Amino acid sequence: MPGSGTAEAPPTLDATLGGCFLVALLAERFMLDPVPAGDAVAAVAVGVLLAVAVALRRRLPFPAFVLSATALCLEALLTPVSWLSPYANLLGVWSVARHASRRQAWWGLAGTVVCVGVYFTFRDDAVRPTQPLGVLVVWLALWTAGYAMARRQEEQRAVRRLDRERAVAVERARIARELHDLIGHTVNLMLVQAGAGRRLLDRDPGRARDLLLDLENSGRDALTELDRVLGVLGDAEPVGADRLDMLPDLARRITEAGLPTTSEVDPAVTDLPHSLDLTAYRIVQEALTNALRHAGATRAWVTVRADDGWLDITVRDDGQRAVGGYRPGRGLLGIGERAAMFGGTATHGAGPDGFRLHCRLRS
């Protein structure tokens, strides 16, 4: 990873580059411009150090830079200088800026200035006064380019990390809403069935037995649906997840719990995306659960229609308890959030004829 000393290329690539550099440097030192015999050992040692620095420049950018700078200074001190050696250090300057951490990169910048100064101070041949300045400008320009590229990649990684964290947060919120809708609906339904069974236990044992059977089935269905919701955490979509064509079954369960419910789905509502289908079902489920628990209603109606690119959902009941004013609870707020996920709206309120929830979801 750039900026942390991790190799971006296979190690063999840099090792090959280091080997090629050593061969070229030795050919230059002993064939094109031979060094004196007394300097041969020092020239070979410096060449090996520079080649090792080139080979390690990505995996260990800061140590490799220090090694190349040291080797270049030793060359100026011990042997006639090579025209090829400085390019190994130049590659090290680029690498320390591009692949090392921020702190190491800045230490590399300071080392570059020192290295250039020492190199030109101890060279045994005369140089023009402007040559060290020109070399330093080139070295610093390459360091600046590498440093800027590394920082830009750091910013990109930070943005990607934030995007991942945001996506995880959204997914957690979605799963939390899903669990709230599922468990809240089922538990409330079971409580209503248990209460009705208790009241009928002495007066109508047969009816009480039926309610207890419905209670058992509701618990079994809750476990099945819980498995489906938790299946979202895996790689595959939950098999048989809730959808709008299961509204008649939902209406039946609400009716058996004590709130006669009628559902009507427009035949044009077909082939919806899975997420939209599930969201629409959950909205209806939450609305009917609220009506069952809080509205004091005796009847409820559900209509779902397709309307020019929109999915139109209306849940209405004849409850009267909210006429004098109400505060939206977690369920209604969750419905609003679900609608917003699909660029839609959710409006709700009480009137003379009961409570009405209206949602529009972009399909």
TrEMBL record:
The keyword rRNA-binding does not apply. It comes from the Bacteria. Residues 280-320 form the Histidine kinase/HSP90-like ATPase domain. Its EC number is 2.7.13.3. Keywords: ATP-binding, Kinase, Membrane, Nucleotide-binding, Phosphoprotein, Transferase, Transmembrane, Transmembrane helix, Two-component regulatory system. Residues 21-152 form the DUF7134 domain. It is an enzyme of class 2 (transferase). The keyword Transcription regulation does not apply. InterPro entries: DUF7134, HATPase_C_sf, HATPase_dom, Sensor_HK_TwoCompSys, Sig_transdc_His_kin_sub3_dim/P. The chain crosses the membrane at residues 40-57, 64-84, 104-121, 133-150. Pfam families: DUF7134, HATPase_c, HisKA_3. PANTHER family: NITRATE/NITRITE SENSOR PROTEIN NARX-RELATED, NITRATE_NITRITE SENSOR PROTEIN NARQ. GO terms for molecular function: kinase activity. It catalyses: ATP + protein L-histidine = ADP + protein N-phospho-L-histidine. The lineage of its organism: Bacteria, Bacillati, Actinomycetota, Actinomycetes, Micromonosporales. This is histidine kinase. Residues 171-234 form the Signal transduction histidine kinase subgroup 3 dimerisation and phosphoacceptor domain.
